[in-house]
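INTERNAL AUDIT FORM
Audit reference: QA-55
Scope: verify that the stored structure record matches its stored sequence.
Auditor: D.O.
Record contents follow.
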Amino acid sequence: MTGTSRTRHTHLRTAAATATALLLTTSATGCATEDERCGPAPSSRYRAADLHGAWTSLKGGRLKLSDLGGKLGQTFVTLDWPKNTTLDQTVNNAPLEGGLSGKGNWSLSTDHTTLTLTFDRLDADLERSTIHTLRTGEEKNHPVLYTRVGDPKECHVLTLTRQGD
């Protein structure tokens, strides 16, 4: 009778381990929920000096971050930057129609998690509809800049990688 009891417990442990593994696998794939990460792994280890350089998105948007020092400080230039935060402008396969070319100053938050772009001379419509903040993250031991776009219930992310990384 003791052998039967151990066999039952072994089956129960195996079933519990299988169910746990299945649950973990299911939560790591598919659509992101509130408890799951959407986009690159967030990172706070990168400082402003680590972010200088030319960045590109899959859609062709470009961002160049520089530090000119003095009164000019940290500056940026964009080419084909999304004019709005719709999915077509950021992550879908639709061609980017005349993205924003602009310039201004940028800053990194004190906790090193958010990069803010302050454009020079944008009209009110562009000011409201242009991406101004990017999160700092990491993929394959390299920094990335990203932001979620579109429906918050979906996981659509605009990701920029630095050229040469």
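Auditor finding: record pair retrieved intact. Confidence is low (pLDDT under 50) at residues 7-34.
Action required: none
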